[in-house]
Amino acid sequence: MAVMRSNFVQYLIAFLLLTAAPLRGWAQEDSEASADATEEPAADPAEEVPPSPKHLLTDMPESAEGVETTFVFPDNPKQFLTSGEEAEILCGFYNGGDVPLNVTRLAGSINSPMDFRVYVQNWTSPMYNTVVPPDTQGSFSIKIKPDLNLQARDFIVALTAFYESDGEMYSSTFFNGTVYVVESAGFLDMETFFMYFFIVAVVGLIAGAIFKALQSAGVVKKKSKARKVETGTRGAVDENEWLKGTAARPASGTPKKRVMRKK
To answer: I need a surface site. Which of 1, 21, 82, 204 has the fewest CB within 10 A?
Structure first.
């Protein structure tokens, strides 16, 4: 009896050990799964958005040694711009260095006169990729067109030439100055129209108020209307037509002489 009881206890212990092993594995798997769920997923390198390329006029490189630039407004010696109209500016580029320089393109901007960092409009020329040898001068052009909605005022215009040599980028600003932008001929700004309309209306109201004040003060008198006298539709001769043939007015013709009869 004691042997059977001991065997039963051994079988029970073995059964508990066999059933506890899978339970421990399941619990470990559940804990690992929950830990994986709490971890943030790693970012996919393919989904990362590449940074946008910088504009040419941002963080411009320095000028190369020996480079000299000049400018010409061929169609506008007075150096003003017209809104909505295209203007061409020429750039003279002299390479005074020892190595050839590859001029890639020209770029420019119109900026606020109050703060140069405020860009109003940008322009870029087509790609040139023209090599200027040492001790040689080249000529390049850029066409700019101010926006039609720009108000007539002063702006700062900056134009720059970009070039390279042996993989090194350079830039030289050939124009940087104040330019007056005028409105296009025939273009009427609505703001200007309403401004003039408002001025005319205010002047009219002030003139009317002054005139009424002078009338009330007796300085200006109202003109009295002349009374019209009604007359008949016929002349004075026609009005006496009813007297024809009477003693008051004989009939028309040669009046007869009265003959005195002797008694």
So the answer is: 1
Residue 163's nearest CA partner among 95, 257, 217 is 95
Identify the bridge partners of residue 89 per DSSP, sorted by sequence position: 142
Rg of the chain taking only CA atoms, in angstroms: 53
Q: What is the pLDDT of residues 79-109, one digit of tens each?
A: 889 999 999 999 999 999 999 999 999 999 9
CATH architecture of 67-182: Distorted Sandwich (2.70)
Q: Are 92 and 71 in contact (CB under 8 A)?
A: yes
What is the residue extent of each domain of the chain? 67-182, 188-218
Sign of CA dihedral 29, 33, 34, 36: positive
d(CA 170, CA 161): 8
Give the helix/strand (H/E) hosting 26: helix 2-38
Cβ neighbours of residue 124 closer than 8 Å, sequence gap 6 or more? 56, 105, 106, 107, 108, 142
Q: How many CA atoms lie within 13 A of 132 on its CB side?
A: 26
Comparing CA positions, the residue from 130, 66, 77 lying closest to residue 99 is 66
Quick: pLDDT tens for 150-166. 888 999 999 999 999 99
